[in-house]
Amino acid sequence: MTGRQRVFWPWADLLIGLAVSLALVSPALWAADCVPDNINLGSQAEIDAFQSSHGPCDRVVSNLDIQGADITGLGGLSGLSRVDGDLFITETFGLSTLNGLSSLSRIDGDFGVFHNFELIDINGLSYLAQVGGNFGLYANPKLPNIDGLSSLASVGGLLSVSDLHSLTNIDGLSALTQVGTHLVFNLNAELTNLDSLTSITGIGGSLIIKNSPKLVSVDGLQSLANIGVAVNIISNDTLTNLNGLAALLGVGVDLVIQSNASLLSCEGLWRLVDSIDHAAPGPGAGAVPDVGGKVLLKDNLPGCNFTSEILLSVGRFHQAVPMLGGWPMLLMGALMLLIAAWRLRMQ
Fold it and tell me: Which end of the chain is more exposed for a tag (fewer CB within 10 A), N or C?
C-alpha cells in the first residue's frame, strides 16, 4: 500500500460512516415518495413507525389522514416536507402540539385541523408556506393562538378559522397575501381583532365575520380593495366601527352588515355604497355601482342601517338625498342631527 493510499482510506471510511449516519437520522435526505399513495395513521404506534412502514420518504403523493384517540405526538413524521393531496389531523384527545411537521412546507390539496381537544400549540407548522386547497382550523377548543402559521403566504381555496374558543388573536397570519375563495372567522368567543391581515388586498370569494362577541375592530383589513362574492359581517356584539374597510371599492354580489349590537360607525364603507363607480367598472349597475347585488344594513345601531346614514355621516349629503327617493332636504338635515345626538349619547 502506498503512502497516498494509507492517507486516503481513513478519510473514505469516515465519509461513508457520516453518510450512513445522516441517512438514518434524517430520512428526508432520501427525497423519496412515501408508499402507498394514500396513508391513514390511526394510532400513536403507526405514527412512530411511519418512516419504517412507508419510507424512508419526505413526500406523500396523495392523501394523509391522521385520526386516533391515543395519538399524543407527531414526531414520527419528522422529515416530511410535502403532501400532494389532502392532510387531515382530526379527532385526537391527547395531541398537544404539531411539532413533528416542522419540515412541512407545502400541501397541494385541503388541510384540516379539527376536533383536537388538547391542542395548544401549532408552532410545528412554522415552515408551511402554501396550501393549494381549503384550509380549516375548526373546533380546537384550547388553542390560544395560531402563531405557527407565520410563513403561510397563500391559500388557494377557503381559509376558515372557526369555533376556536380560546383564540385571542390571529397574529400568525401576518404573511398571508392571498385567499382564493372565502375568508371566514366564525364562533371565536375570545377573538378581539384582525390586525395581522394587512397584506391581503383581495379575496376571490366572500369575507365572512360572524358570531365573535369580543371583536372590536376589523382594522387589519385596511388594504383590502376587492371581494369577489360577498361581505357578511353578522352578530359581532362589541364591534363598533368598520373603519378597516375604508379601502374596499368593489363587492361582486352582496353586502350584508347585520345584527351587530354596538356598531354605530360605518363611515369606512362610504366609497363602496355611494353612487360613484370607484371600482371602474364596478359589478353593479344601480344606485350603488360598486356592489353587484343587494345592500342589507340592518339591526345595527343608528348610523349603520341605511346607506343614507353612512353618506350623511361623511358629508355626502347630495348623494344621500336621491338614494332616499327624493325626501326633502329638511328631513335629511334632521336625520343627520339625530345621528349626531345618538353618538354623543353613546360616548
Answer: C
Rounded to an integer, what distance in angstroms lies between the CA atom of residue 336 and that of residue 209? 29
Q: For residue 268, is it left (φ>0), alpha (ψ between -120 and 50) or beta?
A: alpha
96 vs 50, 93, 117, CA distance in Å? 19, 9, 8
DSSP code at position 286: S
How much of the chain exceeds pLDDT 70, in percent? 82
Residue 16 one-letter amino acid: I
CA angle 230–231–237, rounded 5-degree value? 150
Dump strand ranges (E) for the chain. 39-41, 59-60, 64-67, 82-83, 87-92, 106-107, 111-116, 130-131, 135-138, 154-155, 159-162, 178-179, 183-186, 202-203, 207-210, 226-227, 231-234, 250-251, 255-258, 295-298
Q: Which three cell numbers stand for residue 3?
A: 503512502
Label residue 316 by pLDDT band (50, 70, 90): low
Q: Is the pLDDT of residue 6 over 50?
A: no
The DSSP result for 60-97, as a single string, is: ESS-EEEE-TT----GGGTT--EESS-EEEEEESS--B
Contact predicate 98/124, CB 8 Å: yes
User: What is the maximal distance between C-alpha atoms in the chain?
Assistant: 110
User: CB of 266 within 8 A of CB of 339?
Assistant: no
Task: Say if CB 81 and CB 104 are below 8 A apart.
Answer: yes
Torsion of CA 336, 338, 343, 344, to 10 degrees: 110
- The whole-angstrom separation of Cα 32 and Cα 22 is 15
pLDDT at position 21 is 46
Q: Rounded to an integer, what distance in angstroms lies between the CA atom of residue 131 and that of residue 133?
A: 6
Q: How buried is 9 (Cβ within 10 angstroms: 0-12 exposed, 13-18 middle, 19+ buried)?
A: exposed
